[in-house]
Amino acid sequence: MPRNLSEDEVSLFRERLCEVATRLFAERGLDAVPMRQLAVELGVSPMTPYRYFRDKDDILAAVRTRGFNKFAEALEKARASVRDPVLIGDAVCNAYLDFAFANPHIYKLIFDVNQPTRHEYPELMAAEQRARDTMSAWVKDQIEAGLIVGDPEEIGYIMWASTHGLVMLELAGKLPKGSARSLKKAALRLMEAGCRPRGSMPHTTKRSTARK
């Protein structure tokens, strides 16, 4: 009979299982990774994962919840590190790209996987919403500063679609390494030019201080 585990032991094993699942799901695809394979990778009995998760979908939800929160934390930190609204777009977009290329397995699982049961997991829904909010918060900063005009949610979605597309193309080898970052800068400039208040001058001051 299995012994009772402490909360720390449960948390540590869940974290280990999620790390293994993240890698295998991204490398092989969800359908090619049964629960038994996760147990083999962890060196435990086939039934052990079921002590911590109901099924594979439950594991996927936990993996994606962690991924969305880590992604959101990275973007929130970047936004908080910059006071000048002129530079916020660069900082947040750079943080987005840094996260995507440093964590390709996590990135693909949070943005390139369809999970029909996601609505059954409140923590996943909250983490996903948090991540989406971070992708338009910097746009609201620029609007409030009078640098651009428009719907922050709409602009945020456009920039998200552009950045995501560039990331996936580079991860797939369809773009040379580093292209996503340079093309992102061009996309950001085009967005800012198109959303600039009528009659205003381009806000290029201090732009050179942002990391390229």
Using DSSP, what is the number of strands? 0
CATH architectural type of the largest domain: Orthogonal Bundle
Low-pLDDT stretches: 205-212
What proportion of the residues form beta strands (DSSP E)?
under 5%
- Which descriptor suits the 3D outline? elongated
- SSE string, helices as H and strands as E: HHHHHHHH
Helix content: 55-70%
The whole-angstrom Rg is: 20 Å
**What is the CATH topology classification name of the largest domain?**
Tetracycline Repressor, domain 2
Number of domains: 2
Distance between the termini: 57 Å
CATH class bucket of the largest domain: Mainly Alpha
Secondary-structure blueprint:
Layout (H helix, E strand, L loop, with lengths): L6 H22 L6 H8 L13 H25 L4 H18 L1 H8 L10 H23 L7 H20 L7 H17 L17
Please explain how this structure is put together.
The chain has 212 residues and is mainly alpha-helical. It has two domains: 1-53, Arc Repressor Mutant, subunit A; 56-209, Tetracycline Repressor, domain 2, CATH 1.10.357.10. The protein has eight helices and no strands. Mean pLDDT is 88; it is low at 205-212.
Provide a quick synopsis of the model:
This protein has helices at 7-28, 35-42, 56-80, 85-102, 104-111, 122-144, 152-171, 179-195. It has 212 residues and is mostly helical.
Structure characteristics:
single chain; 67% helix; 2 domains; 212 residues; mainly alpha; Tetracycline Repressor, domain 2
